[in-house]
Design a protein that fits this description.
Structural class: alpha/beta
CATH superfamily: DNA polymerase III subunit chi
CATH architecture: 3-Layer(aba) Sandwich
Strand order of the largest sheet: 3-4-2-5-6-1-7-8
Number of strands: 8
Largest sheet: 8 strands, mixed
CATH topology: Rossmann fold
Helix content: 25-40%
Radius of gyration: 15 Å
Distance between the termini: 16 Å
Number of helices: 4
Order of helices and strands: EHEHEEEHEHEE
Low-confidence stretches: none
Oligomer: single chain
Length: 158
């Protein structure tokens, strides 16, 4: 059973943080699905990843193409992971169920700390996932660098 990592974005926007996390996930050998709630937003993130860092390239694709199953990183709004993702990164309020988290090597929930609704949605996901027995870690960049602020260990679901 994988853990769910919550990333509270307060200093860097999603488009700056996501490539770092994707690079780490790829370094672990995982296929990744980046799940959002808006096709338009996923297209925007796709463009940002193509224009990304000068020191590296993140091979990825936008869902809906002929080669979704072959993509090491797939940007999607679908709950299914046609690329066989071992890691799902949920953005913009996309949800991850406890059953899905249990089947993944890692689930990440990235949320905008400057958006009160996004913070509350992340808190609700934390409560639901930990109540279902998922291990979870809460990471914050509030002090200028990423630091783990809280952790809940897996328990047997009732």
């Amino acid at each position: 059973m994988g853990a769910v990592y919550f990333y509270h974005l307060t200093r860097q926007p999603l488009e700056a943080t996501l490539p770092i996390l994707l690079d780490k996930a790829r370094g672990a050998g995982w296929r990744v699905a980046v799940r959002g709630t808006s096709a338009k937003r996923m297209a925007w993130l796709d463009e940002r990843l193509w224009l990304g860092r000068d020191d590296g390239f993140l091979p990825h694709g936008l869902a809906g193409g002929d080669f979704d199953a072959d993509q090491p990183i797939l940007l999607t709004t679908d709950a299914a992971c046609p690329n066989g993702a071992a890691c799902v990164m949920a953005v913009d309020g996309a949800e991850i169920s406890a059953e899905e988290a249990a089947a993944l090597d890692r689930a990440c929930i990235l949320f905008d700390g400057n958006d009160a609704a996004a913070v509350e949605a992340a808190r609700e996901q934390w409560r639901a996932l930990t109540a279902a027995g998922c291990s979870a870690q809460y990471w914050s960049e509030a002090n200028g660098k990423w630091a783990k602020q809280a952790e809940a260990n897996a328990t047997a679901a009732p």
